[in-house]
């Protein structure tokens, strides 16, 4: 009996050691690297493929920096000015506060996207600095996603108002935003841990979603950053289309037209982030297979990252152009500019006429 107990304990100890060793092996990401940085390219076809890949990434990066970044930042600054001005004039609305929070998150993402300026090369920094950049990127990423879900919920309860505590809670946007920020912080902190806790002093090639992160990093990001929010968005849209509105509520087309900024932004984010998250999952599959992939895989992942940043800029432009308070302010500015131009033209005509008359005399 004693011998059998000792044998069982030894077997359990060996199994525990094997499981720990496997776990440590799966979390040891020192072997991973970018295909363009690790493969010894010997054939002419491989060299031509990597040159073509780098040309595509470089052109996309230049287009993003030249067109999307200035447009997105300009739209974001205009939205901030309009919302702050309306807040000071006591024109406060819960929807405006949520969109203001969404705008700040997207502006942060645009500033963090400057890390792509080095492409087709990568930002070289320490493991610790890359983890910090990843934390702030994930904070803005999760924050914008969940604030938009909260905005959809607010519009849904506005159209189908139940007499519940949930409806009362959505009428207190500061409380809702605080809850979103708390959840976002916890998720971002979890992701920072899953980047890895070793080799903080080593220099690495850094992306905002680090290549050297553990496979669980991408799984958590897909689940909580895209999967769950997307299911909630689809549920809200289904209820909006399928459920009959109560008497006295505006027609569905009018409701969508009134809040078109929110709905167009939701569709834009879903499409762009779907592409990005599919590539994130594909990268996880390669990690689990202990493969670094090909140059083509690296190219598509870089394209997906730039598309994600383009979505942040496009969302701000959509809000500026379609959200009624922003659109009204933009139209007012355009009308003032036209009036000034017309007034200047009217002033120039008499001066020219007087000069012509004095010259003939």
TrEMBL record:
One of its GO terms (cellular component) is membrane. Keywords: Membrane, Transmembrane, Transmembrane helix. Coiled coil: none annotated. Its main location: membrane. The keyword Aminoacyl-tRNA synthetase does not apply. It is found in: Membrane. Residues 75-319 form the G-protein coupled receptors family 1 profile domain. The chain crosses the membrane at residues 64-84, 96-117, 132-153, 174-195, 222-242, 263-282, 302-322. PANTHER family: C130050O18RIK PROTEIN. This is G-protein coupled receptors family 1 profile domain-containing protein. It comes from Lamprotornis superbus.
């Amino acid at each position: 009996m004693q011998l059998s107990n000792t044998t069982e304990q030894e077997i359990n100890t060996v199994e525990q050691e094997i499981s720990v060793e496997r776990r440590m092996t799966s979390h040891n990401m020192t072997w991973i690297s970018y295909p363009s940085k690790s493969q010894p390219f010997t054939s002419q076809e491989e060299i031509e493929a990597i040159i073509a890949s780098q040309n595509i990434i470089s052109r996309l990066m230049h287009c993003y920096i030249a067109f999307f970044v200035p447009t997105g930042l300009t739209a974001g600054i205009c939205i901030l000015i309009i919302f702050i001005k309306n807040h000071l004039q006591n024109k406060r609305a819960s929807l405006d506060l949520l969109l203001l929070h969404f705008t700040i998150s997207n502006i942060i993402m645009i500033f963090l996207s400057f890390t792509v300026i080095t492409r087709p090369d990568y930002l070289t920094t320490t493991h610790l600095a890359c983890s910090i950049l990843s934390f702030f990127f994930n904070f803005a990423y999760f924050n914008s996603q969940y604030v938009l879900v909260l905005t959809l919920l607010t519009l849904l309860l506005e159209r189908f108002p139940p007499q519940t505590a949930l409806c009362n809670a959505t009428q207190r946007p500061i409380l809702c935003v605080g809850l979103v920020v708390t959840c976002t912080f916890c998720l971002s902190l979890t992701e920072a841990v899953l980047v890895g806790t070793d080799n903080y002093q080593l220099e690495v090639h850094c992306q905002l979603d680090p290549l050297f992160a553990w496979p669980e990093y991408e799984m958590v990001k897909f689940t909580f950053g895209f999967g769950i929010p997307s299911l909630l968005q689809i549920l809200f849209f289904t209820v909006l289309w399928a459920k009959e509105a109560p008497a006295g509520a505006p027609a569905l087309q009018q409701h969508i037209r009134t809040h078109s900024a929110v709905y167009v932004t939701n569709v834009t984010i879903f499409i762009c982030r779907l592409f990005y998250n599919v590539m994130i999952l594909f990268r996880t599959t390669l990690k689990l297979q202990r493969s670094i992939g090909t140059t083509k895989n690296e190219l598509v992942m870089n394209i997906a990252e730039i598309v994600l940043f383009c979505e942040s800029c496009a969302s701000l432009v959509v809000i500026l152009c379609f959200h009624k308070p922003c659109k009204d302010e933009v139209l007012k500015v355009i009308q003032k500019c036209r009036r000034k131009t017309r007034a200047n033209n009217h002033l120039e005509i008499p001066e020219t006429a007087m000069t012509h008359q004095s010259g003939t005399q």
